[in-house]
Structures
1.
Amino acid sequence: MKKTILIIRSTIYFILFMITAIIFCISAVFTSVLPSAVTFTTARIWCRSVMFLLRVCCGLKYKVTGLENIPAGKTVIFASKHQSAWETFAYQIFLRPCVFMYKRELAFIPLFGIAMIKTKNIPVNRGHGNKEMIKSLRASFAKRLKKYSVIIFPEGTRTKPGAEPNYKSGLSIIIQALKGVEVVPVAMNSGVYWPKHGFIKYPGTIEVHILPPIKASELSRDEFQTQLINAIEDEQKKLPLKP
């Protein structure tokens, strides 16, 4: 009976989510000719509606600690654990103004891709790692960081709670050319309540822990990578692994 109720609640959420997604994607077309700030505002409204639907339909809330660790008055790179689609919505609410580094294929989704481009997110072709791509990414990061913080998932894809970490070297390579940049590690456990490839959303409270920044430009590539992994993974051990 309990699982049936969870399926019903998750189905109601999914239907309402799709309705809001269609509305947002259509609005993105109309706002594409307006300043990017308009699209950003529209996107945040949609993200807030998603959080509202999750709370009302699925009983899923969230709690953020460590906001005081975000350096005031400057842009940073947020390096976050990635366990579900939840963080792609929630981070736009409490980490703004931010842009994401995202896989390039998302830009080809009808209507939605327009919003991804208009909101200055950084596309990456995960199948290519040549020098030209790294050079292009460094230039994109440098340009975005003049106005926005950048959110990156250093493992490159969603991972299950408690799974063996698999951090890529991309971020450590990119930041070598970004003088003075600080990287803020973020630990979280969204996958406990919104499992990877799972339809059911479990009730509870997702925890997001924002950690003290790492002064990346003062470290070697290996030193930075080690500090980043240790910071996130040590904090992950403090988070619940079950709903």
Note: The chain is about 45% helix and 15% strand.
2.
Amino acid sequence: MELDSLKDIWKEQDQHVDRHPDNSNEILSMLGKKSQSPVAKLRRNLRWELVAVIITYAFAIIYYLTEKHGRYWEVSILFTLVAVGFGFYYYHKDKLLKSMQCVESEVKSNLQHQLGTLEKYVRFYFIAGTLLMPFLYYLTGLIILYKTPSFQLSGETLGNRAQPMLNAVREHGLFTEFLIGGVVVTAGMYFLNKWYLNKLYGQHIKYLKDLLRQMDEI
């Protein structure tokens, strides 16, 4: 197994430092394998996730930009800002994973530090992704309701700009369903995010943590 091989190399490095000066390079090589190392799998999953996000957000942006001759262009701008934010996140996360494949010294200590940073990235993504969903849901819904002609005709309070928009929304027949839908979407996103992140990143992070823990036992 890859884990056993890495343990053997690490043990040899501790016992025969003078006789095997290049063992750190062997460990580096194992960590940097394209198809087998957990770090390589993490980078590959990150790229697939980025492609999925680009396709999804591009579709949403184009849809709201062209729907009803661009009536809901504000929603397109909203999704564009979120997509740009995700882009920064993916860039820094990929940069971190790339550095984990390019360890040049003190393999174990570097890996421990970088693994802790990676866990923080994943935790932030989980929290932000879960909270972002109800924000996008409600804000998009309000924009669509506000700019829908039938809603504008039925809600006289829209003609009076001094009144809070919330009062106008409350008069709409779908207001209760709209609120309940947001709660359902948020709860569903929470569990989906939890499963999704564990599938793409959690199991590989656990593997690396087990690897470091077993190094301590050697």
Note: The first helix runs from residue 2 to 15.
3.
Amino acid sequence: MRQELIRPGASELSYEIREIVKKADQLKALGETIYWENIGDPIQKHAKIPDWIKSIVSDLGQNDKSYGYSHSMGIKSVRQFLAERNNELGGAQIDEDDIIFFNGLGDGISTLYQFINPTSRIIGPSPAYSTHSSGEAAHANAEPITYVLRPSRGWLPDIDDLYNQVMYNQSIVGILIINPDNPTGMVYPEETLIEIIDIARQFDLFVISDEIYGAITYNGAKHYALSEIIEDVPGVALKGMSKDVPWPGSRCGWMEFYNRGSDRIFNNLYNTLASAKMMEVCSTTLPQMAIPKIYGDPRFPDYRLKENKKIGKRSEVITNLLADLPQLYFNPTQGAFYNTIVFKPGVLTNTQTLEIENSDCEKLLEEWLSEPNIKPDKRFVYYLLAAKGVCVVPISSFCSDLMGFRVTLLEEDEQLLLETFTRIKEAVIEYCG
């Protein structure tokens, strides 16, 4: 071609959560059983949607309007419902015009970063969720800027680290939180959120809160929505129905903007995103129509509570198996359905191995290990996959200097859950000695 087609920041786009699937599929083609712990899809892990939710969706399918275009910003009555739902929390008040729908929250996240000035940066947590860190880095043609979540403090953020980075880096215009957090399963306490809001207020920043897992808490944790604590600071909450219904295939997410009228520059961001949506015609119609019917149904709170208790019990199973291993930093989770498990410094080396019974699997592993500059936790993840059939994601791929791996808490089959994490326990012991 006469010119380069790809902008420099495109090299920052990576999604190891699905990249690891390519290798697992190679083993599956050899007849190996794979224990999938790489991605947060409840349906893949045998979740059963209640009949009453299926009936709502089925009935909507009989409505001719569900097959047509909706308003580009989202169906007005649905946005009104969501605004009223937010306002019941008693914090920042919004109306339907403060809400924009997207074709899944991933679409919303990429659109958000796409239209922010490349010289303006959003600082986010590390370990980072790849969709955020890759999207933000790609828009800036640079590596992500992150603040540290400390495994030694239950994955709470290092507020001093965040403060200092904001103070000394004038390019930072916003702070990202993921609450509950992916990949760690940490839920931000109210006092920590207030500290972050105070930093944003002091340095004239806005706050992004990814709350896709906001309804999924357990083990005594409480989720505080951004609107409850943001006061007068500009902010945007990212929400969707893919995790709590769960309906990941709905591709239906939205943004709620708070205090946009208080800051001209922040309001310009809202107007730009709204204009971008106008060019796309509309967001998915039928899932939008289902939102008031599902979330407004009196059965939904009890359903969600029961599901959260089930996730909490799985958290206990995993804790009982892995918490006492001396090679690991282990924190029980409080929200979402992930756990990030970290090896203590010095535990991993480049000489450790696991026994591979299948010679064809061993040949594949040798190919994987030939990657240049492979990190120690990725090396462990490849051995775990080849030797035990368990597919997890290395934490170094979550924009982190820590060495470890992320698992899910989604497996509905109790015996399969126990077998999967017993295999992980055996691998840690055998690999690390």
Note: The longest helix spans residues 299-322.
